[in-house]
Amino acid sequence: MKTILSIIAICFLALNVNAQEFKFEKDVINYGKITQGSEGKRVFEFTNVGDAPLIIKDIKSTCGCTVPSKPEKPIMPGEKGQIEVSYDTKRLGGFSKAITVYSNAKEERKMLKIKGYITKEGAEK
User: pLDDT digits over 104-118, tens only?
Assistant: First the structure.
């Protein structure tokens, strides 16, 4: 019985050693104060710091005003990848939105955030 448990433990540890991981340069993008209608696209950059291909399965945002796009191909170990996020800058006022990234990484869900403040064109900055 001890042998079976030892084999199971070793297999479990071996699976965790080969886990996929990714490291984002930053997990919050602050647009700052921008004018209405400005470019709303921003990019989250990350690196696969694991030892196996990283697959971004899905990305969800907290509202339809934030549209993320994911890499279609696996990100190989050591390679960089990008997640683009477009925010609708026609909406005035402050915003803070969350984007959830689902992947095959050890941490299956990763939360990213965007925030900023949109002013009318011609308003003081």
Answer: 999 899 999 999 999
**Residue 48: φ, ψ to 5°:** -80, 105
- Rounded Cα distance between 111 and 59, Å, is 10
Sheet containing strand 22-24, strands side by side: 22-24, 41-48, 80-87, 66-69
Neighbours of 59 (CB within 10 A): 21
Distance CA 33, CA 29 (A): 12
Is CATH 2.60.40.10 what the domain over 2-119 is classified as, yes or no? yes
Domain boundaries, the chain: 2-119
**pTM exceeds 0.90, yes or no:** no
Radius of gyration from C-alpha coordinates of the chain: 19
